Amino acid sequence: QVQLVESGGGLVQAGGSLRLSCTASGGTLNYYDLGWFRQAPGKERERVSCISNAAGADYDDSVKGRFTVSRDNAKSTVYLQMNSLKPEDTGLYYCRSYAPNYWGQGTQVTVSS
Predict the structure, then answer these.
(1) Closest by alpha carbon to 38, among 101, 113, 91?
(2) Cis, peptide link before residue 100, omega less than 30° from 0
(3) Which of 9, 11, 32, 39 could in theory staple to 97 by disulfide, Cβ–Cβ 3.0 to 4.6 A?
(4) Cα 11 to chain center, whole Å?
(5) Consecutive H or E run containing 112
(6) Rounded to an integer, what distance in angstroms lies between the CA atom of residue 29 and that of residue 42?
(7) What does the alpha-carbon distance between residue 40 and residue 24 come to, in Å, rounded to a whole number?
(8) How big is the CA angle at 98 (ends 96 and 103), to the nearest 5 degrees?
(9) pLDDT digits (tens, 9 = 90+) for 72-89
(10) Burial of 37 (0-12, 13-18, 19+ CB in 10 A)
(11) Which of 35, 8, 15, 7 is nearest to 89 (CA)?
């Protein structure tokens, strides 16, 4: 069974950058549509971005122009480059495969003001 593993989270000041990575163990991500989600304390999990081989990338309005999703199929890895981070970007960030439906355990992103 494929397991998704996120990495790259951390504590950063507002205006800073982080790059999240999501890799697959036990399989490959190359054929899957993938998404990045986040969940802030006390809030619902929300979709941040998604990427598919057919349709390319899409973003929530709150991160457009600041976040960039990309994939490296040779490494079976998807990335989320996050620039100009804001305190409201704070949350646990998850990688997801849509079909089959897999979720990673999440990586914490904390943006201080």
Answers:
(1) 91
(2) yes
(3) 32
(4) 16
(5) strand 107-112
(6) 30
(7) 24
(8) 30
(9) 988 989 999 999 999 999
(10) buried
(11) 15
* Residue pointed to by tokens 């504590």: 11
- Find out whether 17 and 111 touch, Cβ atoms under 8 Å: no
Collapsing DSSP states into helix, strand and coil, what is residue 89?
helix
Summarize pLDDT for 3-54 with one digit per residue, the tens. 999 999 999 999 999 999 999 888 888 888 999 999 998 999 999 999 998 8
Cα-Cα-Cα-Cα dihedral sign, residues 9, 15, 16, 17: positive
Alpha carbon distance 54, 20 (integer Å): 22
Distance CA 113, CA 105 (A): 26
Pairing of strands 18-25, 34-39: unpaired
Q: d(Cα 58, Cα 52) in Å, to the nearest integer? A: 9
- For residue 88, the SS3 value is helix
